[in-house]
Amino acid sequence: MHSLNYICTISIVVSFFLLSSCKHDDHAAQHENAAKEVVEDDHNHSDEIILSHSTAERFGVKTAKLTSGMFNEVIKVSGQIVPAPDDQVVISARSSGIVTLAHGITPGCHVNSGATIATLSSKGFSGGDTNEATAIALNAAKKELDRITPLYKEGIVSQKDYNAAEQAYEQARASHSGSKSGSVATAPVSGSITQLLVQQGEYVTAGQPIAVISRNSRLTLRADLPEKYYSLIPQINDANFRTTYNDSIVSLAKLNGKLISSSSANSVSLPGYVPVYFSFDNDGSVIPGAYAEVYLLGQSRDNVLTIPLDALTEHQGKYFVYTKLDEEGYQKHLVTIGANDGQMVEILSGLHPGDDVVVAGAIAVKLAETSNVVPEGHSHNH
User: Fold this and answer.
1) From CA 300, how far away is CA 69, in angstroms rounded?
2) DSSP per position, 39-85
3) Cα–Cα distance between 9 and 21 in angstroms, integer?
4) Mind listing the pLDDT tens digit for each residue in 280-323?
5) Burial class (CB in 10 A: 0-12, 13-18, 19+), 250
6) Which of 181, 214, 211 is closest to 93 using CA atoms?
7) Predicted model pTM
8) Which of 97, 208, 259, 282 could form a disulfide with 122 if both were Cys (CB 3.0 to 4.6 A apart)?
C-alpha cells in the first residue's frame, strides 16, 4: 500500500515538471515568433517615408494612378524659331536718295499699316531731286488737263487732244511718289520690324530693300535632324519644343501646328543635318529668332507606362519615383526610363499599372526621406 502511494506521488511530480516544461517551451516559442514578426514588420516598412497630410498639401504633393496608354517615338534635336516666309513683307525704296528713318523705328518695334518707316531725298545730288521734278511735271499735267477738259466738253478740242492730256497726267501721277521733296516708305501691313536693312543717312537706290516687317501671325520651327535619322522622316508628324529663355514646353498641336516639309534643296542648315519645318500660330509667347530644344514626335505605341517628367528625381545618375502607400506613407522606387517628349517620360521598369505615383511635389517627399522618423502610433497595413 505504501509502495503504491509512493509511485503515485512520483508520477504526479513528474507530470507537473513535464507540464511546466511544455508551457515554458510554448511561451518561449511564442515570444520568438512575436519578435520575428516585429523584425519582419520593421524590415517591411523600414523604407517607408512619412510626410504629414498638411505638409504634403502645403508643398503641392499630388498623386495619380499609373495607367498604360499611347506614347510617341521621340527624337530630341536642336532647332530655331524663324518667321514664316509668307508672313514677312519687304519695304523697298520708291526712289533713290538719302534715308531718314522715322522716329522710333528700330528692330523689334511694332508699326501699324500706313505708318511712315523712312523718307528719302536726293536733294543736293547731281541731277537734283527726282521727286521734286516729278512733282513739277504732275502739277503741269494737271493744269493742262483742267484747261482742256471744259474745251473738250464744248467741242472746241478734239477727242485726240483730250486723250493725250489725260494720258500725260496719269503718267506724271504714276511717276510721282506723293512728296514734293523725296519719297516716303510706308508699312503696307501691321506687324513688327524684324530687320532694318539700311542705316540713318545711307544713300539707297530705287527698289532697294529698306526694312522687313513680320505680321507674326504664324511662325516656323526649324528642327535640325541628324542625317542618321533620315529614314525616320516619314514617321515624324508633330513636335514639342522648349526655347532657351523659357522652361515651359510648347506643344505645336495646341498652336495649330502642322508639318510644312521635311527637307528642301534650298534650305540653309548645318552640314550633316536635315531641316524639318513646322508652321504654327504665334500666341505671343514665342520670340522669332530664338533657339530651341525640339522633341520630334513619330510613330505612336500603345500600352506604354508614362509619368510626368516632374515626377522623376535623380541621384548619382539613377532615377527614382515615389508612390503613395497610405494617407501619410510614401515609398521610393528605382526606375529605368526610356524616351521623353519634354512632358512625359517612358517607364521601362520599377513601376506597375495601378501604382499611386507622386506626379507633383516629388522634391518635398525627397526632402522628407532624408529626415524621416516614423511617428508613434503610425502603422501601415498591406
Assistant:
1) 10
2) HHHHHHTTTEEE--HHHHHHTT-EEEE--EEEEEEEEEEEEEEEE-G
3) 19
4) 988 878 888 899 999 999 999 999 999 999 999 998 999 999 99
5) buried
6) 211
7) 0.59
8) 97
